[in-house]
């Protein structure tokens, strides 16, 4: 039987989830957004708030409700829709940044089945990395459904204790921005060295893509792969020396730690 999944909020992340799930043969998608056109544009069946739980319409008995609204609209949204999940024993999946499971319980009910998710922006093209945590009310079936939904966002889905989600935020949640900054620096360096911008951009982007793919597919430690590029007294050794002088590795570690601490602050 097809799983019935509803999405609240069809912005970037809600839209990415809808796009990924549209390809699944065993999923029926429904959604709500204040801009009805967004729902229609994603090929999702629009459902008016007053029809989300109607005993005469069993088609609206959802297996999961994805909460993808902006944080400032969360409480108002759940006041309208919480009865749907409560009566249907639905799994509530939240991608709302910084909102802990305890807070979601207070807005829904203490025994609600909740999955809190930290995705990242590459999910917009099906290349995301997502980590999720489940409330104690969830069972193995809820874990499977969570993975089914999140696998539509990309190849990496990891179940972690909720206390680790702030670290996930600092690493993979904020991480794309660090990578973009690095790519930007590579491009500018190439231009400074005399390359046309388009050439520098193409080489920089593929260098990052190819290097990351080699780490993933080889299974080897980055340090081992780095050593294979570095000849004694060669060009790479000289470049790495400059990165060490600039405390490159320490700066990246500090950036992840700062983002982690800020995530903790926002969630407290």
Q: Summarize the helix and strand pattern as letters.
A: EHEHEEHEHEEHEHHHHHH
CATH architectural category of the largest domain: 3-Layer(aba) Sandwich
Largest sheet, described in full? 8 strands, mixed
Helix share, percent: 40-55%
Question: What is the domain total for the residues?
Answer: 2
Globally, the shape reads elongated
Identify the notable features of this structure and list them briefly.
single chain; 268 residues; alpha/beta; Rossmann fold; ProC C-terminal domain-like fold; 2 domains; eight-stranded mixed sheet; 11 helices; 51% helix
What does the model show?
By secondary structure, the protein is an alpha/beta fold. It folds into two domains: 3-160, 3-Layer(aba) Sandwich (Rossmann fold); 175-267, ProC C-terminal domain-like fold. Helices cover 51% and strands 14% of the residues. The chain is built from eleven helices and eight strands. The protein has helices at 12-21, 36-41, 74-88, 101-107, 140-150, 165-173, 175-192, 197-218, 222-229, 235-245, 248-267; strands at residues 3-8, 27-32, 45-46, 64-67, 91-94, 113-118, 129-134, 156-159. It has an eight-stranded mixed sheet with strand order 3-2-1-4-5-6-7-8, sandwiched between helices. Helix 5 links the parallel strand 7 and strand 8. Helix 6 packs across helix 11 (248-267) and helix 7 (175-192) packs across helix 8 (197-218). The mean pLDDT is 90.
